[in-house]
Amino acid sequence: MTHRPNLSHGRGYLAIPGPSVMPDAVLQAMHRPAPNIYAGELVDMMPGLMADLKRVARTEHYASIYIGNGHAAWEAALSNVVAPGDHVLVPATGRFGHGWGDVATGLGAHAQVIDFGNASPMDLERIAQALAEDKDHRIKAVLAVHVDTSSSVLNDIKGVRDALDAAGHPALLMADCIASLGCDRFEMDDWGVDVMVTGCQKGLMVPPGCSFVFFNDRAQSVRDAMPRVSRYWDWTPRSTATEFWQYFNGTAPTHHLYGLRVALDMIHDEGIEQVWARHGVLARAVWAACDAWAEGGDLRLNISDPACRSTAVTSLRLGRNGGTRLRDWVETELGLTLGIGLGMAEPGDPARDAYFRLGHMGHVNGQMIMGLLGGMQAGMHNLGIAHGRGALDAAAEVISGA
Length: 402
Ligand SMILES: *Cc1c(COP(=O)(O)O)cnc(C)c1O
Fold this sequence. Notes:
Elements (H helix, E strand, L loop, with lengths): L12 E3 L8 H7 L10 H17 L4 E6 L2 H12 L5 E6 L2 H12 L3 E6 L8 H10 L5 E7 L1 E2 L4 E2 L2 H11 L4 E5 L18 E5 L10 E6 L1 H8 L10 H5 L14 H17 L1 H24 L3 E3 L11 E6 L3 H13 L1 E5 L14 E5 L6 H18 L7 H10 L2
Helix pairs in contact: 1-9, 2-9, 5-6, 9-10, 10-12, 10-13, 11-12, 12-13
The structure holds pyridoxal-5'-phosphate.
Pyridoxal-5'-phosphate binds next to helix 3 and strand 6.
């Protein structure tokens, strides 16, 4: 092997599934002195910001903001509608489905988990069966993850609504769109979702620290019938605030709001349909390359059916430890950071080093994806990892649109 200089200097690409790449415009909007939180620009900005958040969620109902990550949004949403002793149905398709169910358990609920494994979407018939068996309607909510970021599976949330309606079951439909919002098509009102949670650091392109819970009147009436709701998590004052501090139950996440304002402008200027379409093309380029590599080696897409793959994140397996070797190489040699595998193998299982993930969510374009794929190919070449040919051609063909 000939000696060559290290090629990691220059602007990197953090291709992990959150936090995602931040636009310079978002960073610049946040680079400012502390603002007044009692009057002025920030206070005046709020009604428009709330309206634009709801536009991304595709809802005309209510939105609440929390200073916290996605885990905080999980707890916030459940705290408003699930009391100790209540039952929830958890159709899990990866680590995050189990995670949300575990938060419900921590709040004293009985979580009935249906485990669909790590490589398949929810089976709607099994959900329908669980709903049919629940003759007394003890299940109060279904906790459905739209995109499970560990497996990169895309679930049919509208299908869960149809199953609830067909069973005549009154449970709330709650959706986790932390990985998918602003990437994969999601229609809160049209799909009949009652509660949706998301965070700001994935498709919304803002540093971690804010999360959001959206809900409708059905969910509000369930909240109103709760024996008690913790003051801090209560979404009612946050969603009906008349004073600035009420949106946050305390001091505002000032700089996040400036960043979010710019990020929402970017999404709406591009158009949400265009944003989804862009993610679709970029993801198909990634899959085309992976299919070509798979022809002559051990690389495998975790989700075999393209219709069940997220366009925000791709979970992969490479040989026995190829994932970790490739990640290490492209990061040190090329300045390209790939995501670790998550929840695919138990701790201590050597197969853990086979799994890795690509984040292609948010502020990502065609040249970044070609760079990502070219970097991976260089890594496999350098490391002597067998791989099929023609991957970059296949990706370029998708990107070209011809
Ligand atoms: C990232 C993520 C979470 C957790 O969010 P944190 O901000 O890490 O707490 C939950 N669910 C899904 C689907 C995610 O992608």
